[in-house]
């Protein structure tokens, strides 16, 4: 009897002990032509996912050969349609269908494609073409649902926090910053589409960038540092914030609430902290701070506490990015070096580091009970 009890207890104690509500993934984008390192082979991408112990991948300007490597796996894929195609799709639905025939039809549902973002920070790159964004989203949606009969892939677009959100402090005062020249509520129309199609609002959230823009923000607040005086209060709501990530997420939630759509799920399409920069003035872009930020982020997401205004937390978070490459203003963001080796000693899966300790304690308890018989 004691042996059976011992077996059952050990089996239960070895199960994962966390109940994370937020899915954590990583982004991958092809290195620019000027990169000193050649792009990794498609199989290296799937190997890197195993190295990082992650099961959600966001592909920026996806290559079908990479999508193919995830056939019959448990990895979910988030695809991004490149910015230069947005205006083409806005005026020609056949272009949307052609892209889907190349990137989705040959693989779905054998590859678990969950989301397609029409552009990434499109308003930053093509502000004069903002009126093309919603028609492009609509055309891709109609091509996917009506022409192909695929109804379980979300269609949305991704925004940069610093250009999409006006007056982010305090979070309760945040509103969307409408594109220059917009006569109607661009964000209101988009949010209506997202609600009607059960899709998510996608946003890039970089505490590092906001910290650099606003010198009054303490470094510790941006790095998830838990110190007695490391907080900021929203005096309008009485909410106390202990990290900048939550403040930025809640600013997005507040802006959506102003438009009347606060229940739409939020996905953080990019976040991270640079481990280096070609700009000598960016002393805070270093491996030590990057590891502190990533450790704090993983711990915060694994806690399941959400944010003050979003108790269930954001739906998904994607860390920018998989491999080091100088693609964002000469900064290094990679979780892995170009050769695929780990840069940080972090369990990105978010599983509890106390699982092994729990198993040992359970074993000792059972041994003690057996000795009492």
Automatic annotation (TrEMBL):
Belongs to the glycosyl hydrolase 17 family. It comes from Lupinus albus. PANTHER family: GLUCAN ENDO-1,3-BETA-GLUCOSIDASE BG1-RELATED-RELATED. GO terms for biological process: carbohydrate metabolic process. Keywords: Glycosidase, Hydrolase, Signal. Residues 30-41 have a biased composition (Pro residues). GO terms for molecular function: glucan endo-1,3-beta-D-glucosidase activity. Residues 1-20 form the signal peptide. Residues 20-29 have a biased composition (Low complexity). The keyword Hydrolase applies. It is an enzyme of class 3 (hydrolase). Pfam families: Glyco_hydro_17. It catalyses: Hydrolysis of (1->3)-beta-D-glucosidic linkages in (1->3)-beta-D-glucans. Residues 20-41 are annotated as: Disordered. SUPFAM superfamilies: (Trans)glycosidases. The keyword Signal applies. InterPro entries: GH, Glyco_hydro_17, Glyco_hydro_17_plant. Its EC number is 3.2.1.39. This is glucan endo-1,3-beta-D-glucosidase. It comes from the Eukaryota.
